[in-house]
Amino acid sequence: MTPESSFDWPQESMRAGNWSQAAERWGVIRKAYPDHPAPWFQCINAHLEANELEAVDPLLAIAIERFPNHPSSTIQPALLAMKRENWESAKDLLDQARQIHSGNAQTWTSCATLALHDNNFDEASRCQWRAVECSPTQANLLMRYAELAMDAERFDEALRRWEILRERFPEFPQGYKRASEAARALGDHETARDLLLAHQYGNDFIESDESTDTHVRRQPQSPLARLLGLVWTKAVFNLRSEVRRNYLSFGWWILEPLMYMVVYMVVFDVLLNRGGENYSMLLMTGLIPWMWTMKAISTSSVSILGGQNLMLQTGVHPIFFPLVMLLQATIKQIPVFILLVGFVWFNGSTPGLHWLAVIPIFIVQALFTAGFSLAVAAVIPFLRDLTNLVPTGLTLLMFLSGIFYDYKFIDEKWHDLFLMNPVAYLLTCYRDVFLDHTTPDFYSLAWRGIVFAAVCGLMVMCYHKLRYVYPRKVME
Amino acid sequence: METLISLTDVGVRYRRKGNIIRRPSYYQALKSITLDINRGESLGILGKNGAGKSTLLRVISGVLRPDQGKVVNNGHSVSLLALQAGFDPVLSGRENAILSGMLQGLTRREITSKLGEIHDYAEIGDFFFEPVRTYSTGMRARLGFSIATITRPDVLLIDEVLSVGDQEFRKKSERTLASKIRSGQSVVLVTHSLVQTRLLCDRVVSIEDGMAHEAGDLKAVSL
Predict the structure, then answer these.
(1) pTM
(2) B59 in reach of chain A (CB within 8 A)
(3) Exposure check for chain B: N or C terminus, fewer CB within 10 A?
(4) Chain B positions in Cβ-Cβ contact with residue A230 (cut-off 8 Å)
């Protein structure tokens, strides 16, 4: 076993900064290897670091006697003198060391320490750099060289010195972290950040093209166009999602109104015998348009409350939510309307030009449905108790709209009042076309359309006004 | 340095809903916040849970209007990084990417042109075309983040997003954000990680009792 192999034990203590323990351990090693200079001079070093100066004198005397030509025989007395603040003596000793041991790194680090005492930064730097040149593989010498600049607050110089450390010893984090602090002290936040990032991710990260802008180039488009595009996409995707959840997929869009029709047929036509001639036609021409309005209103009513997270995350306009529900219900209505037309045709009602009147009726119903849905959706966040009233209200509206009966069976004195109900009026229009082969009163239809359009316009203004109120309301 | 968004004496209070028995009460989330967000700067926001950090981000993004003070934004775009915004578990990752991208302000054409990049960045392979309900939490986080990184508003707001997902994802997302910051993107980052704060932020503000306190020296920042 070589002496050097046993030095790890006390050196471990030195690395941990436990100098007293290191001195003790060197004492033990010294007994085993009394003719080796390291146990003597390292022990003295440990005592000096621990400020145990009384212990240094006897050891130093013996060490100098045994190893007179060793660099530490000249340097360590100088260190001891500095510890005792005997600066003149230290200076004389270090002058000697420079003459005799100019190739020893410790000579120059000690000179640097002496220069620092004299507040001579430049001299300290020169000496420390000589130490680096004497022992280029020792990273701590280079670190001290950079720290000198940090302590003197010469941060631009410190940056340069840390760069040297990074080039030679890239594995030491100080080269990045302390350099970052220097850059930050100079107000160069970008460089400070880059240094930390380089330490975290490697220099390749800084030098790569990762910072190149590959983001989307925004196309100019009005906010309204963006909103409508979003509404359309969301509605279509919601329908896709709905369809994928069920085995029968789109089939339910057709089956559902048919099932309702069967139920009402059984109840009113078969059981109660109140249907009358062509009851199925009457029922279909009432049920199908009604289901569109009913679904739009019921799904829209809680849409803003349900969209709380999305509204707070993305800042999407509150009107987005009821519009999506409205569009969803309308898209689902299209094949059902086609079914209605087919059903009516199949039952003997010959298509003619008068069927074109269905278009304005459909438009007016769309305006009514939109206005009513937007209104209900707008109010619910303020009066959440109304959520419980919506189903009841829709049920009442259903019964008062003549869906499964012809309003003409009601006492005539109630007809005008009855037809003030927009749903009831619209259903009579559809029945005029499909059952009575006539067109509705376009004047009545037109003024109702204007009123419903005005309501829609008013609701849009309301939503615009309350745009920043809804995000608060839904959080209550 | 150009100021993009300026908050002056901003305060926000929330109404706690009352009922037939209990009267409504109010909670002051932010009392008096004054801070500027400058171009090319990354600002860290620290604070305990419930300090008002998320509320502050919502005010900066324009989702919420303050009850007092003012927010000045001269037309700069602001986006809150929202992972999995609008995600529908039945739809595929691709479809959710389109929807989420549109919710964050892109047009259908814009987001569609970037689907390939989103797919590559997310590193979820063919799962991109499968329903999101089949994804692991980490995969959802990857997809959400990859969509969010495609946008480039003038100011990007990030609310603890970098703490989700597995370790690999966190590193990747942090690296992406670092890249954005290096490219001059202005970022406001809410994080509990001191390491992330030191790594990514030029300046730090801590929110305490509804007030903002500058903590310019990052060494002094403690959690």
Answers:
(1) 0.79
(2) no
(3) N
(4) 102-103
